[in-house]
Design brief:
Layout lengths: L3 H11 L5 H8 L12 H6 L7 H11 L3 H23 L9 H20 L4 H9 L14 H17 L10 H23 L1
Helix pairs in contact: 1-2, 1-9, 2-5, 4-5, 5-9, 7-8
Length: 196
């Protein structure tokens, strides 16, 4: 699961002129107030509990009839790509290997997010715009409410502003760029094939 700045980079690559609804939707699956990225709520918002997640994502894509839902879908797709990419491009142990590897994984994620945010010209203004979005087009799901999303965006923005970290040596900026490019390209292919 990539950090929010990676999600936003992918969203910008998929649609550079996207609406705020698309960008907010692209972060919405992570609106989890309990702070545990492995919680039941996160499992539900990402459809990790679905018997056939690929089929659920296909159906979701075919019914994603507004920018918010398309952003949500892109988030879920990017998460899948990130797991595959991470394993293929790093020697860092996957976070599934226990609490110690989870802690190290989260430390690297913070570095990736912080460095990307503090070195991206549009990051501050996009976060501010998302914080002030009017929620036109928001679709509440079983696991993500409007209040959850309204809480998450400024909360994460404050945290990322406060933590100015160097880039990750495990997942440096060049690798982030490669992930973003590949994920955007794969998503565009996948989504257009579903529609044809």
């Amino acid at each position: 699961m990539p950090v929010h700045m990676i999600h936003l980079f992918v969203a910008k690559k998929v649609n550079p002129n996207a609406s705020l609804a698309f960008y907010v939707g692209n972060l919405a699956p992570d609106a989890n107030r309990d702070g545990d990225t492995r919680s039941d709520k996160k499992i539900k918002s990402h459809f990790y509990d679905a018997p056939d997640r690929d089929d659920v994502l296909r159906k979701f894509a075919l019914n994603a009839n507004n920018d918010y839902l398309k952003g949500y879908l892109l988030h879920l797709f990017a998460d899948i790509q990130f797991h595959v990419f991470w394993k293929k491009n790093t020697t860092f142990p996957p976070y599934q290997f226990g609490e110690e590897s989870w802690t190290k994984f989260m430390e690297e994620n913070k570095k990736i997010d912080s460095y990307a945010y503090h070195n991206t010209e549009w990051a501050y203004s996009l976060y501010k715009q998302m914080e002030n979005w009017d929620y036109d087009g928001f679709i509440e799901t079983l696991s993500i409410s409007k209040d959850d999303v309204k809480w998450m965006i400024p909360y994460n923005h404050e945290r990322i502003i406060a933590n100015k970290l160097d880039s990750s040596t495990v997942f440096p900026p060049a690798l982030v760029e490669k992930l973003v490019d590949e994920t955007a390209e794969e998503f565009n292919k996948w989504f257009s094939n579903l529609k044809s």
